[in-house]
């Protein structure tokens, strides 16, 4: 087993560039099975590129029309779509490598490809973790959301991308283009033990730690909604709140992320900590192909989930605004209210103005 499998297990798209499967593909001719696999992976990835780019561009355009304030949750959806779009842009490099049987994008291409994989992966899961945290706080501490400064979500999104970049920085520095057995491949210039430590940290920051945080938050939310649902049933209120739908959609996006990236990480960690594997190089290559398609599929599925999330979030905002407006409205009881004095009218206008300001604060805090 070549060391490239373990060393380059840090990303989904590039793990097939410099492992045993590449060794087979770059040693002269190819068998019929290898050609079929190569064309199949190229076709699937190309279809994913078209589908994913179209869907995420549509999401970004939709967010530009919907984003009325930088304090809106639309900032996070935009961040997720940008991460998916950037990740999908690495597909042409991978497909070209499959068909060309080698790496032809230089040392800079190595650094960019591997770092983009790590950057977008962490930016996505960090954003989902923050979204889950905010929805949790909106339930348990709804009044605190009004006190948050305008535009803080934009600052948080920028901070998340900065943290993701910091985690990818070691890969940018250490990855180099090297020649191994007459093949030019991308390898990190550090020891296997250091690579194990780095990959373990990446697994913890992208899967383990966010999983613990999100799991804890949704367990607490489940307990909270269990009580609220029981109360609603006692009051004959069986209609599901749109806020529930927002929470469910965020959790669905999280589950899809785990479903696409957890198998990849399990496969990479197995190769890293338990070599050699009792399977042929061709089988390992096919598994690598499958993991590649699985991780890229996440960026293709997400735009559909973002659309549903946006729809549910708009419904939630509309019902929330309607509730505030009804709560602050003035209902006359009899005809005598038509003869109110200017002073009473002034008070009513003040109430309306106050209610409007409260409504705007509520909308910006969501």
TrEMBL record:
The keyword Nuclease does not apply. The lineage of its organism: Eukaryota, Metazoa, Chordata, Craniata, Vertebrata. It comes from Callorhinchus milii (Ghost shark). The keyword Glycoprotein applies. The gene is LOC103175719. SUPFAM superfamilies: Family A G protein-coupled receptor-like. High affinity receptor for urotensin-2 and urotensin-2B. The activity of this receptor is mediated by a G-protein that activate a phosphatidylinositol-calcium second messenger system. Residues 355-366 have a biased composition (Polar residues). Residues 327-366 are annotated as: Disordered. This is Urotensin-2 receptor. Keywords: Cell membrane, Disulfide bond, G-protein coupled receptor, Glycoprotein, Membrane, Receptor, Transducer, Transmembrane, Transmembrane helix. Belongs to the G-protein coupled receptor 1 family. It is found in: Cell membrane.
């Amino acid at each position: 087993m070549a060391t490239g499998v373990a060393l380059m297990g840090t990303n989904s798209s590039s793990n097939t560039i410099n492992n045993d499967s590449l060794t087979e593909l770059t040693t002269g001719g190819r068998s019929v099975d290898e050609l079929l696999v190569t064309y199949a992976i190229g076709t699937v990835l190309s279809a994913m590129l078209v589908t994913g780019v179209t869907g995420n561009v549509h999401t970004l355009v939709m967010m530009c029309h919907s984003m009325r304030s930088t304090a809106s949750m639309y900032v996070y959806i935009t961040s997720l779509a940008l991460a998916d779009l950037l990740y999908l842009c690495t597909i042409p490099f991978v497909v070209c490598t499959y068909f060309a049987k080698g790496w032809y994008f230089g040392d800079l291409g190595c650094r960019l490809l591997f770092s983009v994989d790590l950057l977008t992966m962490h930016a996505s899961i960090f954003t989902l973790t923050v979204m889950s945290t905010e929805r949790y706080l909106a339930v348990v501490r709804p009044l605190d959301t009004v006190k948050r400064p305008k535009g803080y979500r934009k600052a948080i999104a920028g901070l998340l991308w900065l943290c993701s970049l910091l985690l990818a920085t070691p890969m940018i520095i250490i990855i180099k283009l090297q020649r191994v057995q007459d093949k030019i491949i991308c390898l990190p210039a550090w020891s296997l033990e250091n690579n194990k430590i780095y990959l373990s940290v990446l697994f913890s920051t992208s899967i383990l730690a966010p999983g613990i945080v999100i799991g804890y938050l949704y367990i607490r939310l489940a307990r909270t909604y269990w009580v609220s649902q029981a109360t609603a049933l006692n009051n004959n209120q069986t209609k599901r709140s749109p806020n529930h739908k927002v929470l469910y959609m965020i959790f669905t996006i999280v589950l899809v992320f785990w479903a696409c990236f957890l198998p990849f990480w399990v496969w990479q960690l197995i190769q890293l900590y338990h070599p050699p594997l009792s399977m042929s190089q061709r089988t390992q290559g096919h598994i690598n192909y499958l993991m590649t398609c699985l991780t890229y599929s996440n960026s293709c599925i997400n735009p559909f989930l973002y659309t549903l999330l946006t729809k549910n979030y708009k419904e939630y905002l509309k019902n929330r605004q309607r509730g505030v407006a009804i709560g602050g409205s003035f209902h006359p009881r009899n005809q005598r209210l038509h003869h109110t004095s200017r002073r009473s009218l002034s008070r009513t206008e003040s109430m309306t103005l106050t209610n409007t300001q409260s409504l705007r604060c509520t909308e910006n805090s969501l």
